[in-house]
Specification:
TIM Barrel, 13% strand
Length: 291
């Protein structure tokens, strides 16, 4: 699916001081990210889906559909460790205007690989749009192995995977044996170029909320085989990437977005806004990027 090649922005969900969804700020974010995004990812980890109500999630999705002035494809996140609940949530969602579903591997339960296979088969069977797997062992406490990913790639409604395992060898195994049109996407901003180089089709990015044009240049240079120039763009983000996650995602990127006047840095508990030491670290790294 070529419309999901390139940079998918894992959109944050802006909040007001009273922790209501800040729709004017969200509209501003959509305009800002459209400068370099190829598609939007709505209600993923970075969107604080874990602390949004079902009603809020669906209202945010509808708002993005209505304010998508660049007419970019939309990927919507639904996942969990209760397969039945995930399937029922899919059935109650209006997928009109949605290109694909992003579904995280079941967390906390630590299922076997066979359990992961059956979970995603049930999700894919129920979903009216194509499904992207999301492998992030650091959050789920279990890894979707390359073999399991390739097994799931045989399902006609599973079209790709967001790989955030940090294991490049595992990604290479997927790249070597995956079907021709399968989407191997980086779930780690810092592995974007490496993923392009081994046959990946792009990245679902946190930092693209702030730096969409840098990711656009990285994509263009990588696809042209100009990896030295692509690396030059990525290296701009090297010092600021780490602080983004020191106190939880999206704490860092929301502070950065506040710094550039897009939205506030409010997050919902159990996350709290960036501490003063982290703010100073992010500001210092940001100043070096602007030079």
């Amino acid at each position: 699916m070529k419309k999901l090649h390139g940079t998918g922005v894992a959109l944050i969900t802006p909040f007001t001081e009273t922790l209501e969804v800040d729709y004017p700020a969200l509209k501003k974010l959509l305009r800002h990210t459209a400068k370099g995004a190829d598609y939007y990812v709505v209600m993923g980890t970075t969107g604080e889906a874990a602390t949004c109500t079902e009603e809020e999630k669906k209202k945010v999705l509808e708002f993005i559909k209505e304010n998508n002035s660049a007419n970019l494809p939309i990927v919507y996140g639904i996942g969990g460790n209760n397969t039945h609940h995930v399937v029922e949530d899919i059935k109650s969602t209006d997928f009109s205007g949605v290109t694909a579903l992003l579904s995280v591997s079941p967390y906390y339960s630590k299922p076997s690989q066979q359990g992961i296979v059956q979970h995603f088969q049930a999700v894919a069977d129920a979903c009216p749009v194509p499904v992207l797997l999301y492998n992030i062992p650091g959050r789920t406490a279990s890894n979707i192995t390359a073999e399991t990913t390739l097994k799931l790639a045989e399902h006609k409604n599973i079209i790709g995977t967001k790989e955030a395992s940090g294991n490049l060898e595992q990604c290479m195994k997927i790249a070597k044996y995956m079907p021709k049109d399968f989407l191997l996407l980086s779930g780690d901003d810092m592995q974007s170029i490496a993923m392009y180089a081994i046959g990946g089709k792009g990245v679902i990015s946190v930092l693209a909320n702030v730096f969409p044009q840098i990711f656009q240049k990285m994509k263009e240079y990588s696809l042209a085989g100009k990896y030295d120039k692509a690396s030059h763009q990525l290296f701009k983000l090297l010092e600021i990437n780490g602080p983004m996650y020191e106190e939880g995602n999206p704490v860092g990127v929301k502070f950065l977005l506040e710094t550039i006047g897009i939205c506030s840095s409010y997050v919902r508990l159990p996350l709290v806004p960036a501490s003063l030491p982290l703010q100073k670290k992010i500001q210092s790294a940001f100043e070096s990027i602007k030079k």
